[in-house]
Structure prediction request, 186 residues.
Amino acid sequence: MAEKLIIFDCFGVIFEDIAPVFMRRHLDEESAPVIKEKLFPPADLGKVSYDELLDNMAKALKLDKAKMVEEWNSMFIPRTSILPVVKALGERHDVILLSNAPYGVVEGQFEKHGLTPLFKKMFISCNLGLAKPNKEIYLHCVREMGKSYDEIYMIDDNWGNLEHLPEIGITPIHYTGDDKVLEALL
Prediction:
């Protein structure tokens, strides 16, 4: 059997997408991506705390922070259809998580929903000072696994995080909700 490393993105793959959906709820179509791109990268890189991100979001969206946080937290919904596929892949291959996120968000949600055991390792951008689509973050994850792989896959819902991966030997899989594509990796 080929030695495979399968890397999963978090939001939009393991969990429902949150930030873009939340921004579109509160801003028009043009402003939502602009404000998201202004607020999230510093938190994803560990330059601002999660609480500072939430403060900045409340100010930018002109929302009461407590009500905003309640709505935001309600959006952390695991995609239950993909979890058995992830578990089955993990029984045969090395399965890891790579997510752009602020400190504590992914770890807290994975603990809350009992998802941590599905992954051999979890790599979060804020802890590394690197974020997708920077090629170095993917290479770091592979190196940290400490072994050689015949095949490496990255599953992400954002094509921008995938398009340059073949250049570094990683096969991109653009996740659109079709778990049959992932079952083919078994």
Q: What stands out?
A: Residues 31-44 form the longest helix (14 residues).
